[in-house]
Write a structure and sequence with these properties.
mainly alpha, two-stranded antiparallel ribbon, GPCR_Rhodpsn_7TM, single chain, receptor
Length: 455
């Protein structure tokens, strides 16, 4: 039994060893499995962390894009383009004001109108355009109700003042050419300032009514509420008439009359000069030589009939000086009692030479005046063409939309038409100064430092 017992004991020892080996292997497998699970979990956590970071980055990009009402490239392009217009408007109109106050040839009463026009256009560039740029890029109004009302009021006020200043300039030019002698006495600083004051008062009366209740603005204003001009029909008719359509009619009639008056005055004086030349030509062709005193007298008449055309102000002035005056008078003094028989032929030649010279001078003068007449017509056409092109689309849209429930215009088209109107403020300093030599010289002096000595 002992052996059996031994055998039993031996078997028991062997089984115990096998059990211990199995337990060790099991624990080793468990450790490997746990380790692999930990590695797997840490790997998964690492991947999820990377995904989380990527997700955060993506969401931040999406968040940045969500702040804009348009795509990022479009926002950048819009900001650059509108920023250039805004900056150009400010620089151009500031140069106009500095030119009038610092350049002596431009320090006259009528140019105060240009200062008022430039001030209105600067107000458009400073108080209106920047908020419109932000509104266009963000796609919504984020400045609150009160800023919306103030911005819209400044918009109407400054744009209306700009248009009414154009109308005042047209009236001033018409009075200056229609009745130059009397209006030269009436065109005082006080009169001009009163006209400018009237322009700004009328602009205020047109822009303020929505602030005191003449509007259809919502009572509750959120970031999604559009900030736009009131569509109250009565106010639309009132403001559109006072801001654009009435000034448009006045400017059209006035500029037509300015052109007609300038053309008629030029042609009347040119015709008077031609009649004098014809009379002297007939006299020179006759058998008797015209006395030089008569020739000198006719030359004086031609001198009075000569024309000084100024296309920049579209005004004409009479001059009484010609290059031939001294020669004619010398001949008159030389033969006070008429030419003697011995000098008949020489006097005839002198008289004929004077007439030919005067005739060629007057023909050249007439050609120059006709050229300036055409240029003045071009200037008037550009003034009216730019004004109508810039503002007619906006005011047409402004009047039609409140009365047409089925009409729809995209936001991009509305922005384009609105900025087309703002462009008039950028073009005004170009139109009203580029055709004036003094303004060009002043701009060169201010920008390039040329001509500083001329004050």
């Amino acid at each position: 039994m002992w052996h059996t017992g031994y055998n039993t004991n031996d078997v028991n020892l062997t089984s115990m060893e096998e059990d211990s080996n199995d337990s060790y292997v099991s624990r080793l497998d468990l450790f490997i499995n746990v380790s692999s699970m930990n590695l797997s979990e840490s790997s998964n956590e690492s991947m999820s962390g990377s995904n989380l970071i990527a997700s955060v980055n993506d969401s931040s990009v999406e968040l940045d894009s969500s702040l804009l009402g348009v795509a990022v490239p479009q926002a950048i392009g819009t900001a650059v383009a509108l920023g250039v217009i805004m900056l150009g408007t400010m620089i151009g109109n500031v140069l106009v004001i500095l030119s009038v106050f610092t350049y002596k040839p431009l320090r006259n009463v009528q140019n105060i109108f240009l200062v008022s026009l430039a001030a209105a256009d600067i107000a458009v560039a400073v108080f209106v355009m920047p908020f419109n740029v932000a509104y266009s890029i963000l796609g919504k109004w984020v400045f609150g109700l009160h800023m919306c009302e103030l911005w819209l009021t400044c918009d109407v006020l400054s744009c209306t003042a700009s248009i009414l200043n154009l109308c005042a300039i047209a009236l001033d030019r018409y009075w200056a050419i229609h009745d130059p002698i009397n209006y030269a006495q009436k065109r005082t600083l006080n009169r001009v300032l009163c006209m400018i004051f009237s322009v700004w008062v009328i602009s205020t009366l047109i822009s303020v009514p929505p602030l005191i209740g003449w509007n259809d603005w919502p009572e509750v204003f959120t970031s999604d509420t559009p900030c736009k001009l009131t569509e109250e029909k009565g106010y639309v008719i009132y403001s559109a008439s006072g801001s654009f359509f009435i000034p448009l009619v006045i400017m059209t009639v006035v500029y037509i009359k300015i052109f007609q008056t300038a053309r008629n005055r030029i042609r009347v004086k040119a015709k008077a000069a031609a009649n004098i030349l014809k009379k002297d030509a007939k006299a020179s062709a006759s058998s008797q030589m015209p006395p030089l005193k008569t020739v000198s007298s006719d030359v004086s008449k031609i001198e009075v009939a000569s024309i000084n055309c100024n296309s920049s102000s579209i005004e004409m002035e009479e001059k009484s000086s010609t290059p031939q005056e001294s020669g004619a008078k010398e001949n008159q003094d030389e033969y006070p009692n008429g030419p003697r028989n011995g000098k008949q032929e020489q006097a005839n030649k002198t008289s004929t030479a004077v007439l030919v010279t005067v005739r060629s001078y007057m023909e050249q003068k007439e050609r120059i005046c006709l050229q300036k007449e055409r240029r003045a017509a071009q200037v008037l056409g550009i003034v009216m063409g730019v004004f109508v092109l810039c503002w007619l689309p906006f005011f047409t849209m402004y009047v039609i939309l409140p009365f047409c429930d089925n009409c729809y215009i995209s936001d991009d088209m509305i922005n384009f038409i609105t900025w087309l109107g703002y462009m008039n403020s950028a073009l005004n300093p170009v139109i009203y100064t580029v055709f004036n030599t003094d303004f060009r010289r002043s701009f060169q002096r201010l920008l390039c430092g040329k001509g500083r000595r001329r004050r």
